[in-house]
Every structure is written in structure tokens, then in C-alpha cells.
Design brief:
Layout: H1 6-10, E1 13-14, H2 24-34, E2 43-47, E3 55-59, E4 64-69, H3 82-91, E5 102-106, E6 116-120, H4 137-154, H5 173-188, H6 194-202, E7 214-216, E8 225-227, E9 234-237, E10 244-246, H7 248-255, H8 274-277, H9 282-293, H10 301-325, H11 333-337, H12 340-355
Antiparallel strand pairs: 1-2, 2-3, 3-4, 4-6, 5-6, 7-10, 8-9
């Protein structure tokens, strides 16, 4: 028997985990009051994928919906911001950025235990394997083109026109992110990782001088997107929890980490024959983004790669913290959290390569 792929393990739904059970009757009553045309009764299932906010598929009598909520229990400061997710999705409804339609935000925790929002269920496919093993090279090429186009459109949004000019601070994004994720890392630290300690000291003392501000996603990657079931067409970008105003090149570099990470991390394809797979090289992909956005080639690309590896390690450590607290959203959270050390080691190796 072969090992299950990431697609096998993360795709689809499962019965709601005990730690994330909700009052379905109370939810149905709330939806009937706040969504036009809603008709119960409902069936509630939990999506297998996702590591942060528990997300449910709600099947009603005449439609399907998605409910995304804050997890129960003790939470890190400023984390799990479903209200921010709802706001940015609502603001992007009339832009060319592909997003699901949102219906209502409930800030009242007494309905299902924590605040939540409701959005449409987009029928399509989420790809968990970065190299799309069941697809042919031309299909993969088109998927990467669609992803590149999606983030280029996002970074081109006129934030003032969509009412997001105050969605974050207009400068010093990377410095603030380093401060924020350093605190989040310390708050969820379960073991000493020397490379993380070194990076927390090195990164803020070597900040680039190319500050720029756009709307950024913060976690733009293949498995946070829904594609058409049959065509390589991007239907919706998901998981906007850490979106804000920030540096577009830092955001794009995070998206490009798979070119630097080995396959065994589950987050990369370094060392694979990309040309044979139909996947562009890192430089080709970066050049396509620069062409679409009208930007010059970035001068601090290697710094942003190191920064994002470190940032991902901090995010994974937060997942491990939730595993220890028993509040993790995914049944595979422990596996993800355990990757924090390896990512920190890769990030520090990137710094050493820059300084050699």
C-alpha cells in the first residue's frame, strides 16, 4: 500500500472534531435570520484542510455555505481575525481579484461559541500537491500562470477605492511583521530553536530600503485557492486571515518559497525537473509577476526569501502551540508544527549564503 498523498489527507470534509463542535440548530436559526432565501435544516461537516480557523461546510435545504470561525480556547494576541477576513473579502467583491461571496459576519460568540462569518461554497478543486502529479505539463503551466495573475491583480488593487486604505499601516511592513511574528513565536514556543533566535536578532538589523505598500494576502499559496474542476481556472482565493497593507515583494516572495524548499517539507519542489513538469523556474515566475505589475526586478529578493522562511517557521510554531493546547483546527496539525525547526534551519542557511 502506498502512502497517502497530501491531496488524499487534506481534501474534502470529515465529521466535526470534538474540540470544534457547534450548535447546528442555533447556527441554522441565525442563518435563517441573516441570509435571504436560506432554508434549513442543515448538515454540518468540517473541512480537513486548514490549520488556523476551523472551517465548516454547511449544507442547507437549497444551498451550501461555508462557515469560518475563531477556534475555541486560549488564542494568541491578534490571531484568528475572522472579522478582518470578512472585511477584506467584502471589499474585494467588485474587483477582478477572484474571491468567494460573503454573506454575514457574526461577532457574537454565544451563537456557536466564537465569532464567525459565512461565505458562499465555491464548487471546485483545491490542489494540495504543489506539482499537481495527476495533471499534465500544459495544465500545470496554466495553473501557475493563473496563480501569478491572481497575486498580480491583488497587488494592483486601489485600496482607497475599495475602502481598505486603513486596513494596515502604510509603511515599515517587514519591520512590523518581524516584531509581530517574533512575539507570536515566543508566545507559542515549545522548545529552543537556535536558528530562530539568531534570525530574530539578524532580520531587523538588515532591513531592505525598498519600502512599498499594497494590499497583501500574507499566505498566498496553491492550497489556499479553488480552481475549476476541469480547467486550470482560478475561481477563488481563500484564507485572508493575515491580509493587510504591506510590502508586495515580501508577499510574493512568500508565495515563491516552493522553489527553495525540498519536496519532503510538503511545501516545495526544489530539485525536481520543473521544465519537464511544465512549472516555470523561479526567475521566470518572478519575471512574469514583474511584467504583470509593471515592477522592476527586486534588489533584495534573497533577504525576502530568508525572512519568509523564518516567518513560516514562526507560523508553524504557532500551529504546534495549538497542538499542545488541544485547539488545533486540523487533524494533521502536529505534523505541520513539527516542521518549524527545519524551516528555521533553512532560513538561517539562506542568511549564511547571503553573507558568504
Amino acid at each position: 500500500m502506498t502512502d497517502p498523498t497530501r491531496d488524499d489527507r487534506f481534501r474534502g470534509t470529515m465529521p466535526v472534531r470534538d474540540a470544534h463542535r457547534i450548535d447546528a440548530d442555533a447556527l441554522a436559526r441565525y442563518l435563517a435570520e441573516h441570509i435571504g432565501g436560506f432554508r434549513g435544516p442543515i448538515e454540518v461537516e468540517q473541512f480537513r484542510g486548514g490549520q488556523s480557523n476551523p472551517t465548516y461546510r454547511v449544507t442547507a435545504a437549497n444551498a451550501r455555505y461555508v462557515v469560518r470561525r475563531k477556534p475555541p480556547g486560549k488564542l494568541l494576541p491578534s490571531a484568528h481575525a475572522v472579522d478582518r477576513e470578512y472585511r477584506v473579502l467584502q471589499a474585494l467583491q467588485e474587483t477582478d481579484v477572484p474571491t468567494p461571496r460573503v454573506f454575514v459576519l457574526c461577532k457574537e460568540p454565544k451563537i456557536i461559541g466564537t465569532p464567525f462569518y459565512v461565505m458562499e461554497y465555491v464548487e471546485g478543486r483545491v490542489y494540495w500537491e504543489l506539482w499537481l502529479p495527476e495533471r499534465d505539463p500544459s495544465f500545470r503551466t496554466a495553473v501557475f500562470e493563473a496563480m501569478n495573475d491572481g497575486i498580480a491583480k491583488l497587488h494592483s488593487v486601489d485600496t482607497r477605492a475599495v475602502g481598505l486604505e486603513d486596513f494596515g499601516k502604510p509603511a515599515d511592513y517587514v519591520a512590523r511583521q518581524i516584531g509581530r511574528w517574533s512575539k507570536q513565536y515566543r508566545a507559542s514556543e515549545t522548545e529552543t530553536i537556535a536558528e530562530m533566535d539568531r534570525l530574530i536578532e539578524w532580520l531587523p538589523s538588515h532591513l531592505p530600503d525598498d519600502d512599498e505598500t499594497t494590499l497583501v494576502h500574507g499566505d498566498y499559496r496553491l492550497d489556499n485557492m479553488i480552481f475549476d474542476n476541469a480547467e486550470p481556472r482560478l475561481l477563488a482565493i481563500l484564507d485572508w486571515e493575515i491580509s493587510t497593507l504591506g510590502h508586495p515583494i515580501a508577499d510574493f516572495a512568500y508565495h515563491c518559497m516552493p522553489w527553495r524548499l525540498p519536496p519532503e517539507t510538503g511545501r516545495g519542489f526544489k530539485g525536481m525537473d520543473l521544465a519537464a513538469l511544465g512549472i516555470p523556474s523561479e526567475q521566470e515566475y518572478l519575471s512574469a509577476y514583474c511584467w504583470r505589475t509593471g515592477r522592476a526586478q527586486p534588489t533584495h529578493w534573497e533577504y525576502y526569501m530568508a525572512y519568509n522562511m523564518w516567518r513560516l517557521a514562526a507560523i508553524l510554531q504557532g500551529i504546534m502551540g495549538r497542538v499542545m493546547d488541544g485547539t488545533a483546527a486540523s487533524e494533521h496539525a502536529g505534523e505541520m508544527g513539527a516542521m518549524a525547526r527545519g524551516l528555521a534551519e533553512l532560513a538561517w542557511a539562506q542568511v549564511e549564503a547571503m553573507e558568504s
